[in-house]
Write a structure and sequence with these properties.
Elements: E1 14-18, H1 30-33, E2 39-43, E3 62-64, E4 85-87, E5 109-111, E6 133-140, E7 157-163, E8 181-186, H2 197-200, E9 210-214, H3 228-231, E10 236-240, E11 259-263, E12 270-271, H4 280-284, H5 286-293, H6 299-304, E13 312-316, E14 323-324, H7 329-333, E15 344-348, H8 358-363, E16 369-373, H9 376-382, H10 387-391, E17 398-401
Parallel strand pairs: 1-2, 2-3, 3-4, 4-5, 5-6, 6-7, 7-8, 8-9, 9-10, 10-11, 11-13, 12-14, 13-15, 15-16, 16-17
Length: about 400
């Protein structure tokens, strides 16, 4: 319980509570005393209900209600005219947002990730044109859900859960020049032989820097992902749990990419050397390849070198990955630059992978950190830090094997 006799709540600018165990009963008169509060945090307090009196906090800028079990938010919350941040992350029983949400005209950040029961997004959300962060949005098949986003041109970070074929054209993503991060989650049970038409036809935000594709259902990656005109600013890609991907070779065309994370790629059984740009064409004309690859900063090099700017490569939970193809002796004679800027390689929970590509590692002179965790066969092979296999990777400055 809270008591205004202990603290002069009327002068408080911030009020924060954090409870992981137990419950907090918030008295209705509490909000009558917090007349000047700008920041209110009631996180993980076991709140079954948010009192309507919260709408009296007219000076409130930042409201954190995350981790509570309430089912609805009071409509009165929409009276918070100056509210800039609303955090309802992990409110997993919340079923809907207030219908009058357009009243939050100054809202900039709506953090609503991990709200699994939140299935209805009110149309009024489309009027919040100051919104920069939208942490959870559902796009359903045969609906106009995405049209809600068309005027939200200040968005910088957007998370969309996609259920079936949807019309991305109505979202006007290509006009969102401020968008830097986009996360696309595809629902289970949807498979496509080629690229899903809704994704292929999508015009992506022009200045996108970070992209996550989770549960991607197509056999091929969308053409815009690897097109220079659209992917020129993309520096980080997370590709997780694809359903039907047939090849990862197109990823090497991402010349601006600095960080690549591949997670739960069940289709990955053998990672071929082509992934690193070692192809027959290089064997046929190694002299020309040397001329082309000698300057990794040139535009022609960006075409020829696979992942010319990649600094971090991360594999995780690739359970069927057993073979990482190494270079042959003939390959070593070919003038080829392999990931010339790679500094960090992480491999986690890839239990079936048996050995590392030693010749490829020797070609990556920039590699500083090799981090191997929970990979049983690799740990058995290298963790004792003795023998011929260890010597083949011991030149790497930092090797961590757990």
């Amino acid at each position: 319980m809270f008591s205004s006799r202990v603290v002069d709540f009327g002068r408080l600018r911030s009020f924060l509570t954090f409870f992981k165990i137990g419950r907090v009963v918030v008295p209705q008169n509490l909000f009558c005393h917090l007349k000047c509060v700008r920041t209110l945090t009631l996180r993980s307090c076991g709140l079954d209900e948010i009192p309507a009196e919260i709408g009296r906090l007219l000076h409130l800028r930042h409201l954190n209600l995350s981790g509570n079990p309430f089912i609805t938010l009071p409509e009165a919350i929409c009276d918070l005219y100056y509210l800039e941040t609303l955090n309802i992350i992990f409110c997993d029983k919340l079923s809907c947002l207030p219908e009058r949400i357009e009243g939050l005209v100054h809202l900039r950040h709506l953090f609503n990730e991990n709200t699994d029961d939140l299935r209805q997004i009110p149309q009024g959300l489309g009027k919040l044109t100051s919104l920069c962060t939208l942490g959870g949005f559902i796009a359903r098949s045969n609906s106009d859900d995405l049209a809600i986003l068309k005027d939200l041109n200040q968005l910088e970070r957007l998370v969309i859960e996609i259920e079936g074929e949807v019309d991305f054209g109505s979202a006007k993503l290509g006009k969102k020049i401020n968008m830097r991060e986009m996360f696309l989650f595809f629902s289970d049970g949807t498979h496509f032989i080629e690229t899903p038409s809704c994704i292929e036809s999508m015009e992506p935000p022009p200045n996108l820097e970070q992209l996550a594709l989770v549960g991607y259902p197509g056999a091929k990656l969308p053409s815009w992902l690897v097109a220079k005109s659209h992917a020129s600013n993309l520096t980080k890609l997370v590709f997780a749990s694809p359903h039907n991907i047939s090849s990862l070779l197109a990823l090497r065309k991402l010349s601006s990419l600095e960080e690549l994370k591949l997670m739960e790629v069940e289709e990955l059984e053998c990672l071929g050397k082509e992934f690193f740009g070692v192809t027959k064409a290089l064997h046929e004309n190694s002299r020309d390849a040397l001329d082309t690859l000698s300057n990794s900063e040139s535009s022609s090099s960006a075409e020829a070198v696979a992942f010319p700017n990649l600094r971090k490569l991360h594999f995780e939970d690739c359970n069927n990955w057993t073979n990482w193809e190494d270079l042959s002796e003939d390959d070593e004679e070919v003038a080829v630059s392999i990931m010339p800027r790679l500094e960090e390689l992480k491999i986690q929970y890839c239990h079936e992978l048996e050995t590392l590509p030693h010749r490829i590692f020797r070609k990556i002179s920039s590699l500083k950190i090799l981090d191997i965790r929970h990979c049983n066969k690799l740990r058995d092979r290298y963790s004792d830090k003795t023998g011929d296999d260890w010597k083949k990777i011991s030149h790497i400055p930092q090797v961590h094997i757990f």
